[in-house]
Amino acid sequence: MSLLDGKVALIVGVANDRSYATHIARSLHENGCRCAFTHLPGEKNERRTRKAVEAIGITDPWMHALDASNDADIDAAFEAFKAKFDKLDVLVHSIAFADRDVLQPGAFTSTSREQYLAAVDISAYTLLALSRRAHPLMQAAGGGSIMCMSYYGAEKVVPGYNIMGVAKAALESTTRYLAWELGADNIRVNAISGGYLRTLASSAVGGAEAFMDASKEKAPLRRPTEGSDVGDTAAFLASDLGKGVTGETIYVDAGINIVGI
Ligand SMILES: NC(=O)c1ccc[n+]([C@@H]2O[C@H](COP(=O)([O-])OP(=O)(O)OC[C@H]3O[C@@H](n4cnc5c(N)ncnc54)[C@H](O)[C@@H]3O)[C@@H](O)[C@H]2O)c1
């Protein structure tokens, strides 16, 4: 009997083999969870997501296109999911977006209204939008676990992280308010604050490579964060072992967030 036997997860955010969502999918799958996926619209995106998912041993995955900035797209994805599965136990939100022009050290003040709102919309509001559609499906399962991905730049200034730090602060607060409301139906909502991992999204942040060197030198574990560190914490949160944990931001970063200098 595996930890997540009988559970069904919907994972939003697999772009390629480096994505945090891919590491999460691997851990959930290895622990017996049935995983379904969304991908950005378009054949090329579908192919990239499918390749990453199949590489972790999930053959013939259920997949649906989703641009999370579009409410009709979210409705269509959840309708299709509902037609295939009768319940949902785990929702993984692992998406973010900001215009890379304003993700450079010194560029925060130049962020336009449109750039600010787009970052907060796609990186934070979408957690609420997806959770609202997940709610009835999780009620049918007698409860559930929702998780999202955050970063330390939500609470301290990380030069270059800029508007994404603002969006992550909104995401962590959204996590707490959702946890309070959905907790009445035994649905837990948590954020994992992951350490730096080289991915498509993190490569958009100017100077981000230095975060990895900082982790090797300064983190209590003297090493960078690995994708599986986050994946395994996600499996814990998805499982009944995490049944008393909700509304939290859990650091999975080799401990670097506790270091002051
Ligand atoms: N890589 C890091 O160092 C790091 C650290 C902490 C937190 N995170 C967070 O982890 C999450 C995943 O990022 P990642 O680093 O794995 O990079 P990634 O580029 O692999 O994943 C980002 C995902 O966001 C998706 N996305 C962007 N706009 C979307 C939209 N409109 N609709 C649907 N999906 C959309 C992309 O398709 C992609 O799958 C993000 O929330 C990111 O902020 C990353």
Description:
The chain is an alpha/beta fold and 261 residues long. The chain has a single domain, classed as Rossmann fold. Helices cover 41% and strands 15% of the residues. The protein has a seven-stranded parallel sheet with strand order 3-2-1-4-5-6-7, with helices on both faces. Strand 4, helix 4 and strand 5 form a beta-alpha-beta unit. Helix 1 packs across helix 7, helix 3 runs parallel beside helix 4 and helix 4 runs parallel beside helix 5.
Strand content: 5-15%
Distance between the terminal alpha carbons, to the nearest Å?
Answer: 45 Å
Main pleated-sheet profile: 7 strands, parallel
Mean pLDDT over all positions: 97
Number of domains: 1
Quaternary organization? single chain
CATH topology: Rossmann fold
- Helix/strand structural class: alpha/beta
- Tell me which ligands are bound: nicotinamide-adenine-dinucleotide
Contiguous low-pLDDT stretches (5 residues minimum) are none
CATH class: Alpha Beta
Rg value = 17 Å
Q: Per the principal axes of the C-alpha atoms, what is the gross shape?
A: globular
Order of helices and strands: EHEHEHEHEHEHHE
Helix content: 40-55%
- Assigned CATH superfamily: NAD(P)-binding Rossmann-like Domain
Please give a quick description of this structure.
With 261 residues, this protein is of the alpha/beta class. The chain contains 7 helices and 7 strands; from the N terminus they run E-H-E-H-E-H-E-H-E-H-E-H-H-E.
Topology:
Elements: E1 8-12, H1 20-30, E2 34-39, H2 43-55, E3 62-65, H3 71-84, E4 90-93, H4 113-140, E5 144-150, H5 163-182, E6 187-194, H6 209-218, H7 227-238, E7 249-252
Parallel strand pairs: 1-2, 1-4, 2-3, 4-5, 5-6, 6-7
Helix pairs in contact: 1-7, 3-4, 4-5
The protein binds nicotinamide-adenine-dinucleotide.
